[in-house]
TrEMBL record:
Gene3D superfamilies noted in UniProt: HAD superfamily/HAD-like
GO molecular function, one term: 5'-nucleotidase activity
Family of this protein: Belongs to the 5'(3')-deoxyribonucleotidase family.
Species this chain originates from: Ilumatobacter fluminis
Name of the protein: HAD superfamily 5'-nucleotidase-like hydrolase
PANTHER family reported for this sequence: 5'-NUCLEOTIDASE DOMAIN-CONTAINING, HAD-SUPERFAMILY HYDROLASE, SUBFAMILY IG, 5'-NUCLEOTIDASE
Keywords: Hydrolase, Magnesium, Metal-binding
Lineage of the species this protein comes from: Bacteria, Bacillati, Actinomycetota, Acidimicrobiia, Acidimicrobiales
Any one Pfam family match given in the protein's UniProt record, by short name: 5_nucleotid
Length: 461
């Protein structure tokens, strides 16, 4: 558990959970490959040439930014400075990045940029990048009579197809029919929720998924584990209130009508007004009614989800609930970082040596200039030492920059700086962790303290 702001779980009265990629962890390669395939079919119906497209799960990460003006995928620092990018699937060189972005700061409020802030974005990024290549080559559409299209229009077409796949039944029917293929369950998740209930927490399920998908997937994920603890129990016994088709982020933004379920087998709902009742299932609704129903508000409620915008950003900004972000990828990055720890120590030591050499070089150049000269034996020697040191630093720096992902590097870092994604996480997520079960390891009574942050002028220990 990693805290950006101290979170006292003892003061939290209710905990809300998202379902997809939160309570139910998916195998990203399988889930997104299926979404990619179904979206390709949908794009084909629009006349897009999708023949031969292939999904590469490791070629993209969440936290990238799509530049709709230029058709580029970018990785930026917390300040919005671009340090890495591709045009379509082709990596941009340093000079190409400098020409395109030397005077550009990535501002997520600008319509030019689209932030890929969930694992559901991986299939979208893969489709878009490959279709940018075909757009550039004049091979995007199957019909020669198709109207011209720009990078922004292509993105809207791809994004719309992905959204439609998520909303219609074919993909979800495929997942329901073979959940073992798509899910990577953690048996400790159910135990975590049960312990939270024992500690007096009221639990909520607030998911954008429809009842027809939520019911079979939650049965698959939790019924067996709950029945082991509660005779005849099901996943419904874990939650005080269930909201499906929540339409987040709208759920946190506006007062939306809700419907109460009257027939779970047929998925029938009737209009509902007023507070939510314990043990019931609702379709749609809003956060304000949740607060009224629980007689709670603000920091008495914690919401846990995987979507940086829909689950965390608006929740923190608009209703001021406490927030927790689920980042599955962080596990692999931590494993890589631990394996690289010895080399990281060597790299840091060599960088300190380089700083010392550069300082001495700067002084030697100034001394030579004062003596009316531009070169000296001391200057030549220091240049040589720096060059030899760079030969040792370079391979370690390359390895450090590819931890977590060979193409884009660590999710939370951009070079020596925090990534733009990391900045959003620290701004809107009070805590982040790789899986819900980690809450169980810390218990419902934990006091999650934020680490003291370092400033550039702090004296090293």
């Amino acid at each position: 558990m990693f805290a950006n702001r101290t979170l006292n779980l003892r003061s939290v009265e209710a905990i809300g959970y998202d379902m997809d990629y939160t309570l139910i962890p998916y195998r990203t390669d399988e889930w997104e490959a299926a979404a990619f395939a179904h979206a390709g079919i949908e794009l084909g119906r629009h006349g897009v040439n999708v023949e031969g497209l292939h999904f590469e799960p490791d070629a993209y990460i969440q936290g990238l930014v799509i530049d709709l003006d230029l058709g580029n995928l970018l990785k930026a620092t917390r300040f919005g400075y671009v340090i890495q990018g591709t045009h379509g699937t082709t990596r941009l060189s340093f000079d190409e990045l400098r020409r395109a972005y030397s005077d550009v700061v990535v501002d997520l409020a600008e319509p030019r940029f689209r932030f890929l802030n969930t694992l559901f974005s991986i299939s979208e990024a893969s489709l878009y990048a490959q279709l940018v290549d075909r757009l550039d080559a004049g091979e995007l559409m199957t019909s020669e009579r198709a109207a011209p299209m720009g990078y922004d229009e292509l993105y809207r077409l791809v994004s719309g197809s992905i959204d439609k796949v998520h909303q219609t039944g074919a993909l979800k029917s495929e997942i329901i029919s073979n959940p073992d293929r798509f899910c990577s369950l953690d048996d400790e998740t159910a135990r975590t929720l049960l312990d939270q209930r024992l500690a007096g927490k009221r639990l909520l399920l607030i998911t954008n998924s429809e009842w027809t998908y939520t019911q079979p997937m939650m049965r698959y994920a939790f019924d067996r584990a709950v029945a082991d603890e509660i005779a005849g129990g099901t996943w419904r016994d874990l939650f005080d209130i269930v909201v499906v088709a929540a339409a987040k982020p709208l759920f946190f933004e506006a007062n939306v009508s809700s419907f109460r379920m009257v027939d779970p087998d047929r998925g029938l709902f009737i209009p509902h007004h007023g507070r939510y009742a314990e043990g019931e299932v609702y379709h749609g609704g809003c956060a304000s009614v949740v607060e009224q129903s629980l007689d709670l508000a603000g920091d008495q409620i914690l919401y846990v989800g995987d979507h940086l915008f829909g689950d965390v950003h608006v929740t923190k900004t608009l209703v001021r609930w406490r927030t927790a972000l689920i980042l599955r990828e962080i596990e692999g990055e931590i494993v890589d970082a631990v394996g690289f720890a010895d080399d990281e120590a060597v790299l840091r030591s060599m960088m300190l040596d380089k700083v010392d050499l550069e300082t001495r070089l700067s002084q030697a150049r100034l001394d030579a200039a004062r003596a009316g000269s531009r070169r000296s034996d001391d200057i030549d020697r220091l240049y040589g030492e720096i060059a030899r040191l760079d030969e040792k630093i370079t391979p370690l720096a390359i390895r450090s920059g590819s931890l977590g992902n060979d193409v884009w590097g660590p999710l939370m870092r951009a070079g020596n700086d925090k990534s733009l994604f990391a900045r959003q996480v620290e701004k809107y997520a009070d805590v982040y962790t790789s899986r819900v079960a980690n809450f169980g390891a810390r218990t419902p009574y934990a006091y999650l303290r934020a680490a003291r942050t370092n400033l550039p002028h702090d004296t090293p220990a």
